[in-house]
Automatic annotation (TrEMBL):
This is histidine kinase. It comes from Fluviicola chungangensis. GO terms for cellular component: membrane. PANTHER family: NITRATE/NITRITE SENSOR PROTEIN NARX-RELATED, NITRATE_NITRITE SENSOR PROTEIN NARQ. It catalyses: ATP + protein L-histidine = ADP + protein N-phospho-L-histidine.
């Protein structure tokens, strides 16, 4: 079960409201058309202006409608309150909030719209401002439930976290932030946020918060770190915390997650036990969403247990329950299970039908448009941060210049009273301040360049993993299918495409560097270029592993990679040489070609090109000395010297 489930909570704290006379403008009576008990309680509470009691009455009303599957009737009654112009804005805000709860996990778009309507009243009427950040968090969570990370990030950026005084709500906000980081594969940031949330939750005995946070940690260890044993530990802690808090519904979700994790570990008996138990309890509690998720996962387990009839029954049930409102991830997982079950039952037409559906939904999840939009938004955000920093630096410059002018004026008045030595000291101070200002600007520029290069590296890594984990795996499946069909032409084409994807993946992010070190990575790079180009490349790469930091190794690799690309594109050289050697307290890397060379004077456009500046910036990041010697008609030599200890 996806860990995002645990952030679909509908937990709202009691409101701490001052000046209740502003919330209840006039004595009012709610018309009792139906559900007279609900309206009678509302009228009784309105007489005493008790907002906490109003929250309880609405909450009990919504729970009753959900339990008895009377959602339509519940919406009709809440709409009566919203459209009655005689009633206060407070009642209408609470009505919209509880409409959102009725929409629950079935229609996230309408749920989101209900919260937006409540926020609109808050802004228009200037009341209940403390509710706005809470509702904005709920809006962000609806986007997350639909895997719309771009809009989730935008919604979250609108939340004023500092204005949230309630510790339990801060725990929830940190959890949502961690969820976004984890979905973008920034697991370190995600775990940092979750650790902060755990600290706050423990301090305040917030067992519900502990339940959601440990659930999130379980999913990170399961999905991102592939450590299922640790994941199960966190899921058990989450289940116990939910039970202590009295939220059996969410404890059920953690229990189901334990079953899913056992399923991924191929411990099918344990998986069947926990999933069947969760499935039975979800039917008792009337939770359609939980029932559908458990049914789908049971179908997957039954397929692995070679029981296709049971798998078919479970997956059909899952599909029929929430298909219209489910995500593409749920759909392709469900139809994949159906395809395998029909295949095991020798019903090949049905199996092929669901197999095609599987690829349809699978392909849609790989749509890169939203990823590009998110990257564009993040880039714009980074640009805004950089502009803000530059404005701050410019403001500091202006203030410094104004101070300097005042000082010069004052010193001019006192010039006849001071000696030449004082003037020399003053001039020295001015030069020192100027140098400090220049150094500060250089540090800021260098920090920005390093951040930009790191962002590019992170994006390359993410795209590389996407290609490897999605497109690469799909091509392997197609290749196996072609082999089974004995279609050698198709198999050859798929193999060539798979090799192209692997080359692109390696170019974007050198996994060889992570797994085997810098020496092997450089040799693999040289071997690949030599095999796939007309240039003969010789190499003398010594053993230089474990002498540099991981960041330095990646920087050296990128400098060599970019230099080779420049040779291939521009040098027209028949051959090239790549060397890496250990010297006293340093590693020296040499890249040499015998091509046409270029003008390396100060006025040269090439010297001031973006490519050369990128090489120089990367050299600064790894704390290396970079020298380039180029002679027109004779070729180019690049030397990179990286200081190390005990080389």
């Amino acid at each position: 079960m996806k860990w995002i489930y645990f952030f679909f909570v509908l937990f709202f704290t009691n409101l701490e409201v001052k000046g209740t006379n502003l919330l209840f403008q006039n004595p009012q009576t709610v018309t009792q058309q139906s559900n007279s008990g609900f309206f009678r309680k509302l009228n009784q509470t309105l007489r005493y202006h008790n907002l906490d009691s109003l929250e309880v009455i609405f909450s009990d009303f919504v729970k009753d409608k959900i339990k008895n599957n009377q959602l339509v009737q519940g919406h009709e009654i809440l709409n009566q309150i919203i459209t009655d112009n005689k009633l206060s804005d407070t009642l209408k805000i609470l009505a919209y909030k509880n409409k959102a709860i009725l929409f629950g996990q079935i229609d996230f778009t309408k749920k989101r719209q209900a919260f937006k309507s409540a926020i609109k009243i808050i802004n228009q009427e200037g009341t209940l401002h403390e509710l706005q950040p809470i509702y904005e968090i709920e809006i962000a969570k609806t986007y997350l439930s639909q895997s719309n990370f771009l809009n989730a990030t935008k919604a979250l950026n609108q939340v004023n976290i500092a204005s949230i005084q309630n510790a339990e709500k801060k725990v929830e906000v940190l959890g949502v932030c961690a969820l976004i980081y984890a979905k973008m594969d920034d697991t370190i940031q995600a775990i940092n946020k979750l650790d902060e949330a755990i600290s706050i939750a423990r301090k305040n005995n917030d067992y519900f918060g502990l339940g959601t946070i440990h659930s999130s940690l379980g999913n990170i260890y399961s999905t991102n770190f592939h450590q299922p044993e640790k994941a199960i530990t966190h899921f058990r802690i989450s289940m116990n915390a939910f039970e202590k808090a009295g939220y059996d519904h969410y404890a059920l979700g953690s229990q189901a997650d334990i079953g899913v994790t056992y399923s991924r570990m191929k411990m099918l008996d344990s998986a069947l036990y926990y999933l069947q138990k969760s499935y039975d309890e979800s039917i008792k509690t009337g939770s359609i969403y939980d029932q559908s998720i458990c049914a789908k996962e049971l179908g997957i387990v039954y397929n692995q247990l070679k029981q296709p009839q049971k798998a078919l029954k479970m997956c059909r049930e899952a599909k029929d329950l929430i298909w219209e409102y489910s995500s593409n991830n749920f759909r392709y997982s469900c139809v994949s299970c159906l395809s395998k079950a029909y295949e095991a039952l020798h019903q090949y037409d049905s199996s092929l039908f669901y197999y095609k559906l599987y690829h349809l939904y699978r392909d849609s999840t790989l749509n890169t448009e939203e990823t590009k939009a998110l990257a564009k938004f993040n880039a714009e955000l980074e640009k805004q941060v950089f502009v803000a920093k530059q404005e701050k630096i410019n403001l500091e410059k202006d203030q410094l210049l104004k101070t300097r002018k005042l000082s010069i004026t004052f010193l001019s008045i006192l010039a006849v009273l001071i000696s030449g030595i004082f003037l020399l000291v003053l001039r020295g101070n001015k030069n020192r301040k100027k140098r400090e200002l220049i150094e500060q600007e250089e540090r800021s520029q260098r920090a920005f360049s390093q951040q930009l290069l790191q962002s590019q590296e992170d994006e390359k890594t993410r795209i590389s993993r996407e290609l490897h984990d999605s497109v690469g795996q799909d091509l392997i499946l197609l290749k196996n299918k072609a082999q089974s069909l004995k279609d050698h032409g198709l198999e050859t084409s798929i193999s060539e495409t798979l090799n192209s994807v692997r080359r692109i993946t390696q170019g974007l992010h050198p996994f060889v560097l992570e797994q085997f070190g810098l020496t092997a990575a450089l040799k693999k790079l040289i071997e690949s270029v030599d095999a796939n180009s007309s240039i003969f490349i010789s190499e003398e790469v010594a053993e230089i592993d474990n002498l540099l930091t991981k960041q330095q190794e990646l920087g050296v690799y990128r400098i060599v990679q970019e230099s080779i690309n420049n040779i291939l594109k521009h040098s027209e050289s028949p051959s090239a040489f790549i060397g890496a050697a250990k010297e006293t307290n340093a590693i020296v890397v040499t890249i040499k070609d015998y091509g046409k060379g270029f003008d390396w004077s100060e006025k040269s456009k090439i010297k001031n090109s973006l490519g050369m500046k990128t090489l120089q910036e990367r050299a600064k990041i790894v704390n290396a000395e970079l020298s380039i010697i180029s002679i027109v008609g004779k070729g180019t030599t690049i030397h990179l010297k990286i200081p190390v200890k005990d080389a």
